[in-house]
Each structure stands twice: as C-alpha cells, then as structure tokens.
Fold this protein.
Amino acid sequence: MYFVIVYLSSTDNVDIDKQFLYGAISNALEIWLLVHISSKTSFQFDTCPRLLHKLKNSSNEARLHRTVEIQSVRMYQNRIDFNILGLFSLKYCLLFNMMSEIMTYLVILIQFNTHRMTTTIMTENNYK
C-alpha cells in the first residue's frame, strides 16, 4: 500500500517527510485493518455457541443435543485469540496502547526540538 501511495504521489522533488508520512499512514491503516478483522472474527466466533443452542432447542434429536453440548463447551473453553507470535493480542486495546506510546514519544521529541530551537536563537543573539 505504501508503494502505491508513493508511486501515485511521485514527483522529482518528493519531500522525505511526505514519504515518511505516507509510509506511516499506510502502516497504521494496515494494522487497523488487521485488528478490525481479527476482532470481528473473534466476536463472530463468540456468538456461535448461542446459535448452536438455538438449533438444539428447535430439534428433538438426542444425538444433536449431545453434539451441540460438546461443541458449545469446547467453544466456550477454547476462545479464538489472534496474536502475533504469542506476544501481542490483536485487539483494539493494542491500537490504544500504540497510540499512547506514539503520543508520549512525540511529546518528548517536540520538547527536544523546542529546546534546540531556543538554544539556537540564544546563540545567534549572543553573536550579534
């Protein structure tokens, strides 16, 4: 996705900041899409036992009743959880944690940048 955006916006004088911004936006969209799809899939999986019990209640077969009971217990005990190598769970809280970390580092970078600008102005004023 990043390469498509860069190709569409490519000119001879493409600013490196714009390329970085396009890459960051495309990566953020890809991560959001992965989290969204995995969360929706987990939600749908959590609704399956309820649907199975509705099916069980509409039938009078004993074999179907036992099969539904076994499968619904399995589904409740073995919930689907998408994760990345067992380290990060792909849920919406991952996005919130990432955004809070990004904001923290941005605040630190802005503070360093304003400190550098004030020292530059002070040294320029001292030499005049």
Q: What stands out?
A: The chain has a mean pLDDT of 79.
